[in-house]
Automatic annotation (TrEMBL):
Residues 29-210 form the Class II aldolase/adducin N-terminal domain. This is Class II aldolase/adducin N-terminal domain-containing protein. InterPro entries: Aldolase-II_Adducin_sf (IPR051017), Aldolase_II/adducin_N (IPR001303), Aldolase_II/adducin_N_sf (IPR036409). Belongs to the aldolase class II family.
Length: 262
């Protein structure tokens, strides 16, 4: 199901003087933590799926996981630095082909999307396989995403060229969460913490909705005005909550899987 990107052209040299080394190191650790916790929670799929983040201080480069490694194997130093032309600037290996064509085009075409997390996590993906709107605004966790989601109805097969990557990027519009019909989900955010927080709660919201639907009883949606008001309440502290959420994950992993920082 995964395809390796072809051998990259000779990369440009990534000079440490061009970057804030501490910021880049922290981004690597934060992103590696997301991979490890996603694996623990079953949000991964084999060696497929990918998280990326624009390199701090360099809007023309992004961090992404290398092809052939499971989420549970990712470490801070194992992440690749790639440019938007298919070159690996730093790191060993190459990105999975769809990882490059999706993430490079998203970061290039949507500058606000500093972080882009794409998964086939089971519950959200299950809702993306159904006709009609994936989320029904019937659970409090779902209201975190009220007005922030978009549905991409135009499944185009594997993203193995820039055209499909550009189509996916264009489909995002102003949304933070895209349900990619017949495929999976994409979460974009201004920081790693925010993207992780949304990814986690999106799957939780999808899980409880699926469980409620399985009863065969009628769901009770929250009235639109109340849904919008609750969403606004949630967004007031979302950024701080996301940061604290990621901090908690790093504390857990530092105790139990400290190698993720290496």
């Amino acid at each position: 199901m995964a395809h390796a990107l072809g051998a990259p052209a000779a990369p440009a040299i990534l000079r440490n003087a061009e970057l804030d080394a501490d910021a880049v190191r922290q981004a690597r650790i934060d992103l590696a933590a997301c991979f490890r916790m996603a694996a623990r929670l079953g949000l991964h799929e084999g060696i497929c799926n990918h998280f990326s983040f624009v390199v701090p201080g360099r809007d023309d480069l992004f961090l992404v996981n290398p092809y052939g490694w499971a989420f549970s194997e990712i470490t801070a130093s194992r992440l690749l630095v790639c440019d938007f032309h298919g070159n690996v600037i730093a790191g060993e290996g190459v990105p999975e082909a769809t990882a490059f064509f999706i993430h490079a085009r998203v970061h290039l075409n949507k500058p606000r999307a500093k972080a882009a997390f794409h998964t086939h996590m089971p519950n959200a993906t299950a809702l993306a396989m159904l006709e009609g709107p994936p989320l029904v605004w019937a659970g409090q966790s779902a209201l975190k995403f009220y007005g922030r989601t978009l549905v991409d109805e135009e499944y185009g097969g594997l993203a193995l060229d820039e055209k499909e990557g550009d189509r996916i990027a264009a489909s995002i519009g102003d949304a933070d969460i895209v349900f990619m019909k017949n495929h999976g989900v994409m979460v974009v955010g201004g920081s790693i913490a925010e993207a992780w927080d949304d990814l986690y709660y999106l799957e939780r919201a999808a899980e409880v909705q699926r469980m409620a639907m399985a009863t065969g009883r009628t769901l009770k949606p929250v009235p639109p005005e109340l849904a919008a008001r609750t969403y606004a309440q949630m967004r007031e502290g979302d950024r701080d909550s996301a940061r604290l959420h990621l901090d908690s994950i790093k504390r857990i992993l530092s105790r139990e899987e400290p190698e993720f920082m290496h």
